Amino acid sequence: MRLHFLHKAGLLSLFVLLAFAAPAPPKKIKLYLIGDSTIAQKVKQTFPETGWGMPLPTFFDSTVVVDNRAVNGRSTRTFLAENRWQPVVEALQPDDYVFIQFGHNDESEAHPDRYTSPADYRKNLVKFVSETRAKKANPVLITPVTRRKFDKEGRIMETHVAYSAATMEVAKTLKVPLIDLDRMSRELLQQFGVENSKLLFLQLEPGDHPNYPFGRNDNTHFSELGARKMAQLVVNDIKAQKLPLAERMAKPLPKNAVPPAATGKDAQPTTP
């Protein structure tokens, strides 16, 4: 009788423990980035040029795997024509995300090999969105990040008017989350001002870096700082819109925590 009672008590305790056990962690998902050179991974030969997709993984916890498929020089048309989209579609799993930012090369009429009319650009965005949703994944449209261009009075100028408008139109029509990076990045550059905004771009004097011995005056591609600032804008808008991805952000270290790399007897808490 006593053994029977102990057995029942043990089972009851197990049920109680299971009932109050921590919930299972969310499953891992992939966040695909498709777009152009402003997002893309860079090779060491072009450092310090940095796409804003490169620092993006640091903002998420371990349940989000960022898969950056963006490629330099691609428009929506060439990304499709080169069969860069189909492998993403085939790999998509339910609850994955696809961040879609094009426009820089679509609007480049001087380069007919990549130019895409606004009408075709819309059609291509619709294709990306509809095929993502068909796989029960989540599309997010992003307006093209701004170029650094100020007028004589020091006011930032719009550089993607037609293509940002087309992106917003598709987002509204198809009820797709929209990150208006064009507007947010222009506001950021205005805050930095004409001179300080150079810090965000690939602006180098001769001799500053061995990859660019003659210097560089690039108002499209980002420095490490610029890429991180653009990624922060994207992340902040994910939080502001309360997209489900916001629940998968990396947790900040406690104020006095020792960073993981600082181990051993000489490690000291960081100063508040």
Quick overview:
With 272 residues, the protein is an alpha/beta fold. Helices cover 35% and strands 13% of the residues.
The helix/strand class is: alpha/beta
Strand element count: 7
Name the helix and strand elements from N-terminus to C-terminus, one letter apiece. Answer: HEEHHEHEHEHEEH
The appropriate CATH architecture is 3-Layer(aba) Sandwich
Low-pLDDT segments:
1-11, 262-272
CATH topology: Rossmann fold
Shape: globular
Strand order of the largest sheet: 2-1-3-4-5
Give your account of this protein's structure:
This protein has 272 residues and is an alpha/beta fold. The chain has a single domain, classed as Rossmann fold (3-Layer(aba) Sandwich), CATH 3.40.50. The chain is 35% helix and 13% strand. It has a 5-stranded parallel beta sheet with strand order 2-1-3-4-5, sandwiched between helices. It has a two-stranded antiparallel ribbon with strand order 6-7. Strand 4 (138-142), helix 5 and strand 5 form a beta-alpha-beta unit. The longest helix has 18 residues, at 2-19. Residues 1-11 and 262-272 have low confidence and may be disordered. InterPro entries: RhgT-like, SGNH_hydro, SGNH_hydro_sf. Belongs to the 'GDSL' lipolytic enzyme family. Pfam families: Lipase_GDSL_2 (PF13472).
